[in-house]
Design brief:
four-stranded mixed sheet; two-stranded parallel ribbon; 49% helix; 13% strand
Length: 343
């Protein structure tokens, strides 16, 4: 090949390189099309298998709504960690399913993404806990741990501290009615007033911490840790004010029973129920710099950054951006390789 390159004129060498590049692009395109066709075929086969099983149970008689026997009402989820002999272990389940009379289902996520979108988490939990025809069931796939006790419970929103102060627009302990008679927030901080002391910033952490007295102990590290734990484990979703539309969009996708149509309602401006702070003015750099020196500011800001990172993580796995707009992802998992086969 090297000898041919030396003997070929430069123009022919260039043409050969271009031809090779075009051929590689063509092959890559064909491979991608084959992958897409394979994925569609797998989904079609999986849907057919599910329909066959449901039809078989329908022919056997009306579905029994009575509670299943404890041994029958059993679901095992094997969230397979790659390169841990997971295939060998899964094959054991497939080999035993007919003999021991249970079903094996592979959880196929798009591109083997181990993180499900928020809406897929809801679908998945509802699906496998109520799919009596597949019980007892052994589900396996490259999916990260999912807490099945987690349900639509608490929702909330957090706010960045400078913007939150701007929304208040006056010393932290005062009412709007007294605004005309009193100093501005910047003046209060500059003079070291008690109404705008750093302790007044202790707000979001105790709200997420709860009703324990320690939650309201200003500056408590335990309260901070408990607030973070509750945000992750007890809240269905926590949004941020700066990205409120995305928060609404996620809720509509995951909880349509309550939030169907909420995104359009928000976008069209028909949201008079949302309070708007007039004359929103950020505190001066000097004010923020002084408050940032306090331990309370640092803790509240740490909690906000924690909540923001979690929200953006959830959003990244639930939406995609196209031409500047966000779109909710469709369902990205399905079941396949369902055994034993129906007769």
């Amino acid at each position: 090949m090297g000898l041919l390159r030396i003997m070929m004129p430069p123009k022919l060498q260039l043409l050969a390189v271009v031809a090779f590049a075009v051929a590689m692009l063509f092959l890559e395109n064909q491979i991608q099309k084959l992958e897409e066709s394979r994925s569609k075929l797998e989904r079609a086969i999986a849907r057919h298998e599910v329909r066959e099983i449901e039809q078989r149970h329908t022919m056997d008689g009306p579905r029994q709504e009575a509670a299943l026997d404890e041994e029958e009402d059993l679901v095992i989820i094997y969230n397979r960690v790659p390169k841990t002999a997971s295939t060998s272990f899964t094959n054991i389940a497939y080999d035993l399913c007919a003999k021991n009379k249970y079903h094996v289902l592979h959880i196929n996520t798009t591109k083997n993404n181990p993180v499900m979108s928020l809406q897929d988490q809801v679908r998945f939990v509802k699906n496998i806990t109520s799919w009596k025809e597949m019980k007892p069931g052994f589900y396996h796939g490259h999916v990260s741990y999912l807490d099945f006790a987690k349900g639509p419970t608490f929702l909330s929103i957090v706010h960045g501290l400078p913007e939150m102060l701007a929304r208040r627009g006056l010393p932290l302990g005062l009412t709007c009615a007294a605004l005309s008679l009193l100093q501005t927030f910047d003046e209060c901080v500059a003079e070291g007033g008690s109404d705008c002391a750093p302790e007044k910033l202790w707000l979001q952490i105790p709200f997420f911490c709860g009703h324990s007295s320690e939650c309201w102990n200003v500056g408590s590290r335990w309260a901070m840790d408990q607030a973070k734990y509750n945000l992750i484990n007890e809240y269905f979703l926590v949004g941020v004010t700066e990205e409120l539309e995305d928060f609404v969009m996620l809720l509509e996708a995951a909880l349509p029973r309550f939030f169907r149509g909420a995104t359009e309602l928000y976008r069209t401006g028909k949201k008079s129920h949302l309070r708007k702070t007039t004359e929103k003015k950020l505190p001066t750099k000097q004010t923020i710099a002084k408050l940032q020196q306090s331990h309370i500011w640092k803790m509240e800001n740490e909690f906000y950054e924690f909540a923001l990172e979690q929200f953006q993580f959830i959003r990244a796995h639930a939406v995609r951006e196209k031409d500047g707009d966000l779109f909710i992802l469709a369902q990205n998992f399905f079941y396949e390789k369902i055994y034993p086969k129906s007769n």
